[in-house]
Write a structure and sequence with these properties.
It comes from Aquimarina brevivitae. With 807 residues, the chain is of the alpha+beta class. Helix content is 32%, strand content 18%. Helix 12 runs antiparallel to helix 13 and helix 17 packs across helix 18.
Length: 807
């Protein structure tokens, strides 16, 4: 018996040894992962922030001071050393995130995750992400080798850090996924810029609109998706004089939409990607200093999207938030100006139907055949052979949909025309903003910006404020790009671009403030065609009403506005529904819920139940109203909130109110209010029985997840914060204010900032998520804008990066 026990023990030991040191499907060798010498435990300690490190290629020493928030204050003697240092430091704290996001941008996740990521990778390749990054590099090689050199400096800095790493020290995600970091390159930074462009300007509904137009007709389409809403409060004030514009809009050709059907479209970025920004002039400020605020609304992730730094040379000194992989400060300030961005939500993607010849080597254009360009995407797939995807390119751009991808038509395809494929030099905009001293410098920096279209807000220590809606925009004919176009007709091409000096902008407006919140950029008097149904319609009005409410404002007012939870959307519909809904059939439980929402003051605060009732009620109502636009056989889209509410109030007997499944009755808006309320009440009762209550914090359940969504131990859940989409505090379940910044333009400027994360990308570090609680509470951290490399009281460590001597 003893012998049998020994044998069993030996077999179990060998089995465990084998399992722990052998890859099992997509899992890493768990023995290596848990090894106390080289595994996850090596990632528990905080980053070193003192001593000296030798960096190849530096020409002079670089001093890095770390403050108590682990923000690095970098002092270099020239720009080449500065960007080497930025690359090195960013890699030191965010290496895995830095690299992983470019794998995602390039369509290379199958290398890490295997076959399950193949559709994603094919989509990104067919979207032309790698092609666009290559066009950026080609443009910069021709027009701006200096900036390209700075990008190489950044790459050299990243690689200097990677070269110093021992595999034991790789970030935990590499160990978990069982792969290793690869060397950084200029192309990786270009891919990061493409990733930013896709995130903020990769949303379009042309193909869906085409299907909707065919399904419901032009009259109904124009009702559901108007060019302008009945009430607009645009980014650029309505009284702006456009008489200086002397280049006319492209005239309308005799062209018709192509009413094709496509069953499925590629994944789009998060529909709530957006931001708020605003600035007040010195005359509207309680202190006499202009004040600027910015808060980009993006996915809430760990590690955070943002990394805060101070970047200084003898000629300039900038502070703020940057994105790992990008040079310079993206949203921040220097000694003279402050700047920030919101998404301008312009339509910069159009779609063309392409007709091929029999062997798909040519396509029809201008009554002749043109050769296609073939790009073979060789996709590495973990655990299996490479997948080769042949993508055809026309002069419009990549043919995303064809017989090989989401279509079965042998002789046609759909090509994407995207401004991001044109190349450009967005990186130079930030490099020059970091050094800008006045309004003219700011405007000159923006001239390099192509995409994504952004609302760049500006304030200076001189008291000036401004806002430019910047990008490279096609001068479209009226209606161009709203629907799928015939790619064989030259008149459907983009004929020219709006001269950038005619992009919509304002400086020191009479009202004393500028603001943007992803709303319509201009009113109907602007002389160029501008359309996008996704314009925001609520946050912007709350912000503008706030700044019209009194004569002067303080930094505290800015904080209050950032954290404003007023739900204007609900305030414009709930009273109408309560007034017009028949209540005689409500049960006692339903009456309780009815009285709860009736007493609500329309603030989405964490302890309120009104926001939860509203979310359920409106969600059920929206689904019932637009059931005509549900389809498994074609890609469709539905009207957005503002127009939905407009139609409910003004077209309550329209045929769209009728529920498709109820054949024996024709419903009206009044019927839908009651039916949706009862369905919502039923669901709320279930939530209460399961969770104890449906207060907003519990109902919404805001969480900040690790980029690898399957890692709850590296994530944060049940964060007590109010707000929601369409609210100034735009925090929903996993999306919202990703960097709140307020800058008062004192001399030098005084900055406040906070974001939902921490400076470190290491889940074992105390700096990994230490900002989240303050962010949720609406508090800010003072930003220590050092004016020299002399230590201040909050410096907790200093490091010297010095040139590496030739061995």
């Amino acid at each position: 018996m003893k012998y049998v026990t020994l044998v069993i023990t030996l077999v179990l030991t060998l089995t465990i040894f084998y399992v722990l040191n052998t890859k099992m499907g997509s899992l890493p060798p768990l023995g290596q992962f848990l090894n106390p010498v080289s595994g996850i435990w090596q990632n528990e300690t905080d980053e070193s922030i003192s001593g000296a490190v030798s960096i190849p290629g530096l020409t002079d020493k670089v001093t890095v001071h770390y403050d108590e928030q682990l923000i690095p204050h970098v002092f270099a003697q020239n720009e080449h050393d500065l960007y080497k240092a930025q690359g090195y430091i960013t890699a030191k704290h965010r290496l895995w995130q830095l690299e992983f996001q470019t794998h995602a941008a390039a369509g290379r996740l199958s290398e890490i995750f295997g076959e399950g990521a193949l559709t994603y990778d094919r989509t990104e390749r067919r979207r032309g992400m790698g092609y666009g990054a290559e066009q950026v590099i080609a443009y910069m090689k021709q027009h701006d080798p200096e900036t390209l050199g700075f990008m190489q400096d950044y790459a050299d800095g990243v690689n200097a850090y990677i070269d110093q790493l021992h595999p034991n020290d790789y970030p935990v995600e590499y160990k978990l996924l069982d792969y290793t970091p690869e060397r950084w390159s200029i192309k990786k930074s270009s891919l990061l810029l493409m990733y930013m462009t896709k995130t903020l300007a990769g949303y379009d509904d042309d193909l869906e609109y085409t299907n909707v137009l065919r399904l419901i007709g032009k009259e109904n389409f124009d009702l559901l998706f108007p060019d302008f809403f009945d009430s607009t409060d645009p980014v650029i004030p309505s009284n702006t004089d456009w008489s200086f514009i002397d280049v006319p809009q492209t005239p309308l050709p005799a062209s018709k939409a192509v009413l094709d059907t496509i069953p499925e479209t590629i994944a789009k970025p998060h529909p709530d990607n957006g931001s708020n920004n605003w600035a007040i002039s010195d005359k509207k400020s309680a202190t006499g200093n202009a004040i600027l605020a910015n808060d980009p609304h993006l996915s809430l992730n760990l590690p955070s999207i943002w990394f805060v730094m101070q970047l200084s040379t003898p000629s300039h000194n900038a502070f703020g938030a940057t994105i790992p992989g990008a040079l310079g400060v993206i949203s921040g300030f220097n000694q003279h100006i402050a700047w920030g961005e919101t998404n301008a939500t312009r339509d910069v993607i159009d779609w063309y139907k392409i007709k091929f010849n029999d062997d798909r080597t040519q396509y029809r254009y201008d009554n002749q055949w043109k050769d296609v360009m073939v790009r073979v995407e060789d996709i590495k797939v973990k655990g299996r052979e490479n997948f080769k995807d042949t993508v055809l390119y026309t002069h419009h751009g990549p043919v995303v949909y064809d017989v090989n991808f989401k279509s079965d038509n042998e002789r046609s395809g759909y090509a994407m025309r995207w401004i991001a494929h044109d190349g450009g030099n967005n990186q130079k905009t930030f490099i020059e903003l970091n050094k800008a001293k006045n309004y003219d410098d700011y405007v000159n920096a923006l001239q390099h910006w192509n995409a994504p279209a952004q609302n760049f807000v500006f304030a200076s220590t001189q008291g000036n404020i401004a806002l430019w809606i910047q990008g490279k925009f096609a001068n479209k004919w009226e209606g161009q790009g709203k629907f799928l176009m015939d790619g064989s007709k030259p008149e459907n091409d983009w004929q020219s671009y709006i001269p950038k000096r005619f992009n919509a902008h304002t400086k020191n407006p009479e009202r004393g403030f500028v603001s943007s919140a992803n709303q319509h950029p201009v009113d109907e008097n602007y002389p160029y065609y501008v359309f996008n149904d996704r314009y925001e319609t609520y946050r912007n009005r709350v912000i503008n009403d706030f700044f019209a409410s009194k004569e002067t404002f303080s930094v505290q007012d800015f904080k209050d506005l950032h954290n404003n939870n007023y739900n204007l959307k609900a305030a414009e519909l709930v009273p109408y529904m309560l007034e017009h809904m028949e209540t005689s059939s409500l049960s006692e439980d339903e009456k309780t819920i009815y009285n709860e929402i009736k007493a609500w003051d329309f603030n989405n605060d964490i302890n309120e139940v009104g926001p939860s009732i509203w979310r359920q009620w409106y969600g059920k109502l929206y689904t019932m109203l637009w059931d005509e636009l549900d389809s498994d056989t074609m890609a469709l889209t539905k009207p957005k909130t503002y127009q939905t509410i407009y139609i409910l109030k003004n077209y309550g007997n329209h045929e769209f109110m009728d529920i498709v499944e109820t054949k024996d009755k024709t419903e009206t808006a009044k019927d839908l209010f009651l039916l949706a309320f009862k369905a919502a009440a039923k669901r709320l009762k279930e939530i209460k029985e399961k969770d104890g209550d449906y207060t907003w914090a519990n109902y919404k359940g805001t969480h900040i997840g690790h980029l690898l969504q399957g890692l709850p131990a590296f994530s944060r859940f049940d964060i007590p914060i109010g707000g929601d989409r369409n609210i100034v505090n735009a925090t929903s379940e996993d999306h919202g204010p990703s960097w709140r910044m307020i800058v008062e333009m004192t001399s030098p400027p005084t900055g406040l900032g906070i974001y939902p994360g921490g400076q470190s990308g290491n889940p074992g570090s105390k700096y990994y998520d230490n900002f989240i609680d303050d962010w949720a509470a609406g508090t800010y951290h003072s930003l220590n804008f050092m004016q020299s490399d002399q230590k201040t009281t909050d410096i907790i460590g200093s490091q010297t990066l010095k040139p590496k001597q030739n061995e």
